């Protein structure tokens, strides 16, 4: 039993397990190997930076989930998972980064011990943490048939519980504080690495009024300036902010691994007509998208509304405009199920959460003004309250 | 051509490519698909937090490396890679997290265009960023035979160049600053999230005397206390540090993605006999290991010397005691080639760098006192200069 306070009630974990088993049944799966750290945490409470070695959670036909990982990390599993110690399996250290044996060989033997090695076994084929070699080893060692179950658990996470929404609202308080800090302190000549130090500070510190401090984000802060902002995923360097340039800040507040991402863009100087126009298009497009972001509509409705407005302004955005959010581990705070883009006809349900990622990355500039939202029957809840506009510091 | 200043000379990139091609030839490979972000950066200069979508660098039989990734990230590749824009391939956004098509389908078509789709094609089977689904898609679409080339490029990175050692020494200056900050500020009652904010601050800020600021580490700071320190990879929470407890700090300074990891442990109060004894064993074991850490000896020599001393103190450490370090991206700052453990007979060469990871994670306590070292013909260079002992603040 866990030494650290569980973040959710036993009932909530039981409901998650039951939902997963129903999805397994619908897919005709006898067992499921879950390698995605977010899925592992959602099913068991496991929390640790150990995903750089092979590990997983096994959902068998009956009983509690079983945690499987490196021996030294089993100590962390015992402390954070809700299951009994008998459901924590550590493998010996000579399986780590060995060219002779693979942790999946050990896993296969453990599956056999439990009689879970036959039938149809789901695996997360397109997950970072389930490599081609892991699949080959498991396939070689198991009697069962391995079936692709990528995102099966991710889909169960789509509608957030009351407790989860509570953590996401806490994360929103953190991201508000982060953007306030940026706006307070960013100025011409300030070095980016120093600004990132401030962003981390605002993202982490305990606030007695809030009653909590922050956790690490699944992506580091992204803050490209000027022409570099045409690239969405450059990280920082130690050069100073310049006059006449816009810098976008793609950041998230995080509490207990639950994320509230939010981007704003800061122009140092008088915004150029390009930015004035792009801000107008983005804000009008966001209004149009948010208007349709309600239960019963579809993912693509939000995207089509947003892209429709952009088109009227002559702006072409060639990438999706949002994704679901919730509990996440690196490298991504998206849930990798739905996308806000044409063709995604998933019906929106109350309690689904999205980062409405309306960023524009053009040939020689970039602009990000985004919202994280909770779907409801009426207008969506915007999790964070940060002025929705191009931020400007001029003179 | 890159808009951002390249970190290495054209000659150095050419030498890396030539070394990789020699290794490919030795393995009979006609082409190589490199998915590891550290390998991608080492070969091309590419730097960005985009590894959460499928991407790779292709080394064909001739010519420069080819960068392949999401369309929107091609902007980042153009800005950071040394190759001409014609060697940057972006795939359309509807390949991202689609259930109908896989980015590897698009890659296969591009390989065919270049005539690189036949023969033996190396892939990094056991890399995080090469999923089972990526392998299946590529295998389906390519005429060639896919051959496991996990760590082929990682091995080429083992001996550091003068320029690389320069960045690692800079990273050492950063980690020294981080540990000094911890020792200055950590005290009973200080909340861990606040201490982490200080650690990031010390890890990032520009220092005019040094002439540089810091980059993000491939792992977040790890700082487990008391009995939680039995688990090496728990991350922080917002609870206060307690009297009578030890906390280990596993952190790294980072400059241009080059890491200098270094761990120390801080005891708040009077250290218990367990810690006094463990410190003594660790320091003596480190001396024994460092004594053998020189060119011509083997990886296991260091480990056997260290474990030998521990055994005399009755301490059993069941995991490896170090790994190579250099340029790294999340989730790991190790290079995943050699291990300092019995059975690893790799010969040490001048310029190899290791984190001598002598951490102890026992049933209800943990201690980490480590060094990052450069192998030479004589005694190794300890990169950072931080007092090698159990840090104590008592009263």
From TrEMBL, chains A, B:
GO molecular function: hydrolase activity
Keyword annotations: Hydrolase
Record InterPro entries: Creatin/AminoP/Spt16_N, Creatinase/aminopeptidase-like, Creatinase_N, Ectoine_EutD, Pept_M24, Peptidase_M24B
Superkingdom as given in the UniProt entry: Bacteria
Domain Creatinase N-terminal: 16-159
Keyword Hydrolase: yes
Gene3D superfamilies hit by this protein: Creatinase/methionine aminopeptidase superfamily, Creatinase/prolidase N-terminal domain
Domain (Peptidase M24) ranges: 167-375
Keyword DNA-binding among UniProt keywords: no
Name of this protein: Ectoine hydrolase
Protein species of origin: Actibacterium naphthalenivorans
């Amino acid at each position: 039993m866990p030494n650290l306070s569980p973040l959710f009630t036993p009932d909530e974990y039981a409901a998650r397990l039951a939902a997963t088993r129903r999805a397994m049944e619908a897919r005709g799966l006898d067992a499921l190997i879950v390698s995605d750290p977010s899925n592992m945490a959602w099913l068991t409470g496991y929390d640790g930076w150990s995903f750089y070695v092979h590990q997983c959670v096994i959902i068998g036909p009956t009983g509690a989930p079983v945690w499987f990982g490196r021996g030294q990390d089993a100590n962390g599993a015992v402390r954070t998972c809700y299951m009994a110690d008998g459901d924590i399996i550590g493998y010996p250290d000579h399986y780590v980064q060995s060219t002779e044996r693979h942790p999946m060989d050990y896993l296969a033997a453990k599956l056999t011990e439990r009689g879970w090695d036959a039938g149809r076994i789901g695996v997360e084929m397109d997950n970072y943490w389930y490599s081609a070699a892991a699949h080959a080893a498991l396939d070689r060692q198991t009697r069962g048939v391995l079936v692709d179950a990528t995102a099966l658990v991710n889909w169960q996470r789509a509608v957030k519980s009351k407790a989860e929404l509570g953590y996401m609202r806490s994360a929103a308080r953190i991201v508000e504080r982060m953007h306030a800090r940026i706006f307070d302190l960013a100025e011409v000549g300030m070095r980016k690495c120093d600004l990132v130090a401030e962003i981390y500070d605002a993202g982490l510190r305990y606030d007695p009024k809030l009653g909590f401090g922050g956790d690490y984000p699944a992506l580091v802060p992204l803050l490209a300036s000027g022409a570099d902002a045409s690239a969405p995923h450059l990280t920082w360097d130690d050069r100073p902010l310049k006059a006449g340039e816009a810098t976008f800040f793609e950041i998230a507040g995080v509490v207990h691994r639950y994320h509230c991402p939010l981007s704003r863009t800061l122009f140092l100087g008088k915004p150029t007509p390009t930015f004035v126009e792009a801000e107008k298009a983005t804000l009008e497009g966001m209004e149009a998208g948010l208007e349709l972001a309600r239960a019963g509509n579809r993912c693509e409705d939000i995207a089509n509304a947003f892209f429709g407005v952009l088109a009227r302004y002559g702006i072409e955005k060639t990438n999706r405009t949002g994704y679901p959010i919730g509990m996440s581990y690196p490298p991504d705070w998206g849930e990798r199920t739905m996308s806000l883009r044409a063709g995604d006809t998933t019906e929106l349900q109350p309690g689904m959460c999205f980062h409405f990622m309306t960023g524009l990355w053009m040939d020689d500039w970039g602009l990000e003004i985004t919202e994280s939202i909770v779907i409801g029957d009426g207008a969506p809840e915007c999790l964070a309250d940060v002025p929705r506009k191009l931020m400007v510091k001029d003179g």
